[in-house]
Amino acid sequence: MKKELIALTAIAATGLATTVSANEVAEPNVDNAGGVRTAQTEPAFNITDAKNEPALVEKETPKPVEVKTPTKEEVAELGATAKQTQEDADKAKEVLDRANETSDKAEKKVADLKQAKDDAQKEADKATPEAIQNAEKKVETAKAKVQVKEEALNSAQSLKAESDEAVSNQEKIVEGKKEEIEKLQSAVLEAKNNVQLKQNILDGTKISEEKKSAEEALEQETANVKRLSDELAKAEIEDEKHSQKIKNAENDLAEAITKVSTSNQSISSASEKVKQTQSELIKAQENLANQNPKNTIKLTDSFVEVWKELADKHYPYNYETQKELFEKYKAEQSEKLKKIASESEALNQYKSNEQDKDRAIDFEKTTREQREELSLFANDLYNQVRKQIGASEAVVTKGMIDLSEGFSDFGKYSDFVINSQSFAFYTVSNKTKTISNMDEAKRLIYEGFKRFLFDYNYYTPYYDSSTQSQGVASNYVLGEKNKKLYFALWPYLYSGEIGFAWSTLRADLVEGIPNFDKTVIKPSNSTQSNTVSNESALTAVKTAEANYTKAKVDLEKAESEYKEHLLIQKDIQNRLELLKSTPFKASLVKAELAKAQKLQIEAQKRLALAQKAQDEVMTDIKFKQENLDKAKQELVDKENALKLGKDKLQQEEAELTKLQADVSAKAQAVSTAKKALQDAQEEVKLAEKELADLNGAHTRLKEAQAELEKAEAELKDAYKAQNEAKVDYEVKSLAAGQAKTTYETAKAKFEEAEAKRLAALAEEKRKELEKAGYQPVPVVDGKGNVVDYKAEKVTVGTKDDKTYQAPAKATNAKAEPKKQLPNTGTKESNLLALLGASVGLLALAGKRKYR
């Protein structure tokens, strides 16, 4: 039975598979009998990626087929078939996934090789005879430049060789002078000893002691000669190592000098970029200003940060007790403020209003409306600054205008004067200067406020014993930054000078001012500037500001790198100078050995003199005195000669130092020439590489074309395998789905038939129980179907007597079948009918689809 089931399922699957062949790439040709004859093929690159292709197998709506109820065994066999077909479909899916992956890789390879071929084609297009000829000329030019640089290097090396020779000759002269000095020093010592001996001879005493002392001195000097000879051998080994360290330091110095030069060039480039971006920023701001003539005050971030620091930070030094430190700190802060102020000042320029130019004003007789308008204009500038720094904004009130009109009456408004902050924006020393219109008045206010903000003299740190405040301007602008302020501005005349002054008052202090009007004055249409916005101009300003900021950061980075390389160069130079200033030990030991040898000779001479002196003890005293005088004169002569020799040695050493400095300069010139030669040689290499690339461009193009054709052939094979795998998967997947549907349908029919069979049996049992006089109690399954009945004995009686028994309730229980109802047909006939339905469900019509 199982074999028959598998065979029938295979027939259904085969019918599905033969509907579409995995090797077909077009509509199959079918003969009159319905069999597949041939398949038409198309070029490989019309094949569609199987992952993105619609289903190659199309389903048709299954035709209703009458299916007989299957047996339990048949249902189990259909379940096994469904499981097996699903496993086949899963394996086919794995094959398809691998085919998709292979196809992806092949596609990417073809795309990469197409790009490589296109790149090779571009290079081949560039490799014209003219381009090759130009490249050859470039090689020749670069080689000629190398020859020039080699000649320059040879010249520099020749000049250094001459300087080295001059130094060597001068060193010999100095060494000769040193030898002369040593001889003169030896002669002076010998003369001194001779004088002492002559004196001893004259005295007639200590002759024997002198001889003994001379013998001991000779023994000591002989031992020194032996010791220094041993030290010389060790010193020569150490000097060789020291010489190598000097060479290494010189190489490091040359490399450091090159880096300093390169970083210095970077600073120049970065500086030019800063200038360029700053110019672009100014142009963008001017363009924005033309679009929006509202007068604004813009502060740089660094300006804002320093001002906040000035407002919040007290002096670190006390003026009375630390005056020197105070003045030094004040000077440092002033320089810092001066630098950041100049950056902010460049961003702010007054914008004239043509309408204001036509509005006349008499400075000595300003109207209240004019003072209100000018106060609003000044208050707007004041609030722009406070807003950027994070302070609260001030407002112009009628009461402040009233106070400004009588501000000179200190008696009347003494409390106001004490509790307010006032400061002149700007004054004009020229007595003939007049203001004729509102535009000139606003310009004077704007320029005065600008000067107040950015002239560092206005906020140079000053000392206040009570608050130790940092600066005037920052204190006035930032003072009471979290309080509500009232603001007013008024014109004034003083000694022929004209100007404007402003005052602020804390809102909580107005209670002491009689009848103070707190009404806020708002700008009217006539006092407002044109504020037409221009998004494009504003965007340009923001872009220019970002570019300018980046350029400054790049400049700071370049300057930092330059300083770092400069410090490294200085460290190496100090190390080299220390190495050069450290004398070679061998020369020192040689000098000491030579001195010891000379002292040994002098000790021998001294001993001979002592011996001779001992022999002359008996000579005439007058003769001895003459010898002593003669010896003293010889000593004087030799000391004078020694002094002259030392002076000459000093002159020659000075000349040697000068020549050594010249050698250092020549060495630097050689290093520079070497670097220039290396750059020229590198240029030759680049030119030769360019020529070689041009000459080999067509060969590389052919190679790229061949690789591309090979990859396209591989892609064709991959597409073919991919489509075959997809067809196989869809066939098996559909077969698995149909087998599952067949199994679930059969299972449902079997369960339905089984429930009916059990219900029929239960109904027969119920009738039999009732006939036997029992009360039937139904037994139901989990779905609520009655599958059996239990017997309960019926007792006749009433509810009031003990013989009464209530009817039993239905119970949920699984009833065992008591007997098998007859099935119609055999297992084989039922299964064949069911599989016939499956085959009907699997009826397919499909074709290959390609783009």
TrEMBL record:
Pfam families from the UniProt entry: Gram_pos_anchor (PF00746)
Domain Gram-positive cocci surface proteins LPxTG span(s) in chain numbering: 821-851
Compositionally biased residues, Polar residues: 154-170
Basic and acidic residues composition-biased segments: 50-75, 85-128
Keyword Coiled coil: yes
Keyword Nucleotide-binding: no
Signal peptide bounds: 1-22
InterPro entries reported for this sequence: LPXTG_anchor, Surf_Exclu_SEC10/PgrA
Region named Disordered: 30-132, 152-171, 800-825
Record keywords: Cell wall, Coiled coil, Peptidoglycan-anchor, Secreted, Signal
Coiled-coil residue windows: 541-772
Protein's UniProt name: SEC10/PgrA surface exclusion domain-containing protein
Native species: Streptococcus taonis
